[in-house]
Amino acid sequence: MNAIIESRDLKLWYGDHQVLKSITMDIPEHEITALIGPSGCGKSTFLKTLNRMNDLVGNVRITGEVNYNGKNIYAPDVDVTKLRKDIGMVFQKPNPFPMSIYENVAYGPKTHGIRSKAKLDEIVEESLKASALWEEVKDRLKTSALGLSGGQQQRLCIARAISVQPSVILMDESTASLDPISTGKIEDLVMELKSQYTVIMVTHNMQQAVRISDYCAFFLLGELVEFGKTKEMFAKPQNKKTEEYITGRFG
Ligand SMILES: Nc1ncnc2c1ncn2[C@@H]1O[C@H](COP(=O)(O)OP(=O)(O)OP(=O)(O)O)[C@@H](O)[C@H]1O
Known about the structure:
Layout: E1 3-14, E2 17-28, E3 32-36, H1 43-49, E4 60-68, E5 71-72, H2 80-86, E6 87-90, H3 101-111, H4 117-130, H5 134-137, H6 150-162, E7 168-172, H7 180-193, E8 198-202, H8 206-212, E9 215-220, E10 223-229, H9 230-235, H10 240-246
Parallel strand pairs: 3-8, 3-9, 6-7, 7-8
Antiparallel strand pairs: 1-2, 1-4, 4-5, 9-10
This protein binds adenosine-5'-triphosphate.
Enzyme class: hydrolase
Protein name: Phosphate ABC transporter, ATP-binding protein
Keywords: ATP-binding, Hydrolase, Nucleotide-binding, Transport
């Protein structure tokens, strides 16, 4: 296993409240890693530490390291804009910008300096194809993204993440607000994406974790209780608490 991200003794406090307790974990490259655990155990917080989204929250203290391609992302010289380009994020609720479908996807590349119309057209088409949305929207690229269905909007948000050529995509319960058909489409899409990207996803849905993840991390009260291959963890959990959680006995 080649680790693209390594967290080392990572601890995080919101004020006096310690939410992550010494998380040490290697995230394998080109695999799907699911973060599971009961509500409030720190999954989203951990996910956000991986591209420094917690910098945007006041009153946060972080110790330890998160190494991305071998370099600590919390080092003082890190360019956070570049980091968030490399490690993109898709949120729980689809959050397209109130602009056209085309502009939603072109926005990131433009921000990173691409001006050529032909190049932008190409990126928009490729990103929408990669997010399995192109066929549905190719004739209405100039219409508002807000006119798309929730599932389409979420695939647009994935296209937006892909448009800046990240290496890692963080997904925070990105199918939680979708119907089963849209959820299935996103799951298929995520499985296709892993040939090119590393995906780390928070999910409350155990079936989803089993269906699509290669590795699984079980969090409880801010601790990483168990981490391993999903098939092995679900077939033979090493920890009693993991077993209780995945068999639905708590959480
Ligand atoms: N911005 C914040 N300020 C203060 N406390 C926060 C903040 N964000 C999260 N917390 C607290 O940190 C703890 C962990 O929250 P987090 O959202 O990481 O958990 P989670 O496992 O992702 O939960 P869920 O599955 O419900 O989304 C909770 O007690 C939460 O109240």
